[in-house]
Design a protein that fits this description.
The chain has 348 residues and is α/β, with parallel strands linked by helices. It is 29% helix and 22% strand. It has 2 domains: 126 residues, NAD(P)-binding Rossmann-like Domain (Rossmann fold), CATH 3.40.50; 163 residues, 2-Layer Sandwich (Dihydrodipicolinate Reductase, domain 2), CATH 3.30.360.
């Protein structure tokens, strides 16, 4: 197969950089355009020195890219800036494949988007077209899509753990508590006081309590699986490491046992290349998936009667972002889903 020509919008951010890292060794991809308006004119290695060995195109403003030359574009821009840019890209090249790693096309309901993101959606005709790109749940839809809205990192970890259980009616979807923790790359590369080493390095801090935007994605997809509207209790925390994510979900059982939950997850993911359900007594750990596209899920019985604890972990920049986007790109181009993504976790 001829290599697909790939562009990356927002290549100077962490998600954009991880897309570069993974695509640089993808046998069917050729990176031909990199944008970063604030770093236009620089080489990628000036912005990210660990790319010193790669021959990459220089960073340019997105307006200067000839989109007609590209087969696919990954978008790592902040939410709110993505909609109009993607609309412009698709106008220039209607046949291009879009892998959007921002939040702009994840929510199907336009009123929900306005509520959570503070402004009306600016490309509603594309929002209706977008496919929610949680690969394991929407594989067929992704394969046929032109625009894929890749999920947030927290929703990916939570939904892979809970959607099969909600769909099988094994848990009470009206009683879900999610305690989530992410490395500081989840906050982006911009200069923020709370992510300075001296302030984040030896501490653990919650943020966006009761108001984190990923709640909307989680509720949308668990609600779709359960067939009813759902509200979850979701609290994220910042943990002092660069990458990685761990979600602990506390659930009430619907006449099931923790072993039933584990069996259902094993059934759901028996043929999935990247999702692994741990054996009874084996606990997922962030270090088991760091730098990889793999997900670990475990189930533990709670001391409280009729409750269980579901554990899930992934790398927020890989399966939680760039890796899942590449997994979706592979499907969109008819490639083996695992192409370019079989790196083993970086341990220790």
């Amino acid at each position: 197969m001829t290599k697909k020509k790939i562009g990356i919008l927002g290549a100077s951010g962490y998600t954009g950089a991880d897309a570069v890292r993974l695509l640089a060794r993808h046998p069917n991809a050729e990176i031909t355009a990199l944008t970063a308006n604030t770093h236009a004119g620089k080489t990628m290695s000036e912005v990210f020195p660990h790319f010193f060995m790669l021959d990459l195109p220089k960073l340019v403003e997105w307006e200067k890219v000839d989109w007609t030359r590209l087969d696919a574009v990954f978008c790592g821009l902040p939410h709110g800036t993505t909609q109009e840019i993607i609309a412009a890209v698709l106008k220039a090249n209607p046949g291009i494949k879009i892998l959007d790693m921002s939040a702009d096309f994840r929510l199907r309901d336009k009123d929900s988007y306005a509520q959570w993101y503070g402004h009306e959606h600016r490309a509603l005709e594309l929002q209706d077209e977008a496919v929610y790109g949680l690969t394991e749940l929407y594989r067929e839809e992704v394969t046929a899509a032109r625009l894929v809205a890749c999920p947030g990192c927290y929703p990916t970890a939570v939904l892979l753990a809970l959607v099969p259980l909600a769909k099988a009616k094994l848990i009470d979807v009206d009683d879900i508590i999610i305690d989530a923790k992410s490395g500081v790359t989840g906050a982006g590369r911009g200069l923020k006081q709370n992510t300075l080493f001296s302030e984040a390095g030896e501490g653990l801090s919650p943020y966006s309590i009761g108001s984190h935007r990923h709640s909307a994605e989680i509720e949308q997809e668990i609600g779709a699986a359960a067939g009813s509207a759902v509200t979850v209790n979701f609290t994220p925390h910042l943990i002092p490491m660069a990458r990685g994510e761990f979600c602990t979900s506390y659930v009430k059982l619907n006449g099931a046992t923790p072993d039933d939950l584990r069996a259902e997850l094993e059934r759901a993911y028996a043929n999935e290349p990247f999702v692994y359900v741990t054996k009874k007594g084996v606990l997922p750990q962030t270090q088991n998936v760091r730098g990889s596209n793999y997900v670990q899920i475990g189930v533990v019985a709670d001391r409280i009667k009729n409750r269980a604890i579901v554990l899930s972990t992934l790398d927020n920049l890989v399966k939680g972002s760039a890796g899942q986007a590449i997994q979706n790109m592979n499907l969109m181009f008819g490639l083996p889903e695992t192409t370019g993504l079989e790196q083993i976790a970086l341990f220790p």
